[in-house]
Amino acid sequence: IKIDFAPLNVPLARRLQTAAVLQWVLSFMLLAQECIGTLVILIIHTCWFLQVPYLWLYFDWCTPELGSRRAQWIRSWAVWGYFKDYFPIHLIKTWDLDPSHNYIFGFHPHGVLVAGAFGNFCANHSDLKELFPGFTACFHMLPFWLCCPFFREYLMSIVHYGPVSVSKKSVSYVLSKEGGRNISAIVLGGAKESLNAHPGNVTVFIRQQKGFVKMALTHGDYLVPVFSFGENELFKQVNNPEGSKLQCIRRFALPLFYARGICQYNFGFIPCMKPTHTVVGPPIPVHQTQHPTPEQTEELYQTYLEELRKLFEEHKWKHGISEHGTLIFE
149, 36 in Cβ contact below 8 A? Predict the structure, then answer.
C-alpha cells in the first residue's frame, strides 16, 4: 500500500491547525473516558480527600440546564482559531435577524463530530459576533457529555454561553429569556444521522423530530433552518448498511470513522481539509401558542421542511453539489 506522506516544508500555521484539530478529535474520543477513569481510580485507591473539593458538583448539577457558564480566557484560546482555519469553516448569513426575538437554529446535517456547529457556535473566533452582533448562541448537546466529571467543566468553559443540555427544560430556559437576542443551536439529526454521514450523502433524519417545532410555538420564537455544506465530506466511515450488526452496535457509540493522519494523508482520525460552509437561512415567523394542537405543529413543521429544502437548493451549486443533488428527509 502506497502511503502519501506530508511534505517536510509544511508551513508552521498549517501544522498548528492540524494539532488543534487533533486535540479536538481526541477530546471527544478519549477525554470523557479518561476523566471518568481518573475518578474511579481515586475511589478504588480510597483517595477520598482528593475528591472533597469536587463535592460541589452536587450543587452545580443543574447548571447545564440553566444557561450554563463560560470562561472568556478559555474561549479566546488561539487553538480555536487554528481549528476553524484548518478546514476552513465559514458562517454565511442570508438574512438579518430581528434582535427583539429569540431563535431556534436547526442545524443540518449532523456529520460525524459536528465540526461545523462546533466551529461556528463556539469560542470567540467564530464569525457569529460579526454577522449577528449582540446575539448570544447556546449550543445544545447530549446530556451525557455534561454528566462526565471534570470533562463537563472543560466543555462549559468553551462554548459561547457554555454548552447546555438539549433537554426540554434547558431549551425552554434559553428561549424564555426576555429581550431577545438569544439563539438555541440544535443539531436535529442526532446519532442516527451521524451513523449515515458518508461523503456525498445529503440525507437528514428529521421525520421523528418535531419537539423543536412545539418548543418554538410554545415560546413564540422564530425557527431558522441552517445547512452546513461539506459537513459529511470531512470523514469516511466503515460500511454499515441499514440493519447490519455493525450499525446495531454503533447505535451506542461513536461512528467508526477515519480520514487522514498527522504526517500522512491515507488513514487516521484527523478530518480531511474540506471547506465547510454553514449557511443560515431566513427566519420563519412563529406566533406564540401556549398549547399547540397537532395540526398547528404539523403545519409549522412542513413550513420548516420547505424552507430547509429551499435553502439547500439555492446554495448547493455554490458548494460542490451537482444540480441533480436532492435533499432527502428520513
Answer: yes
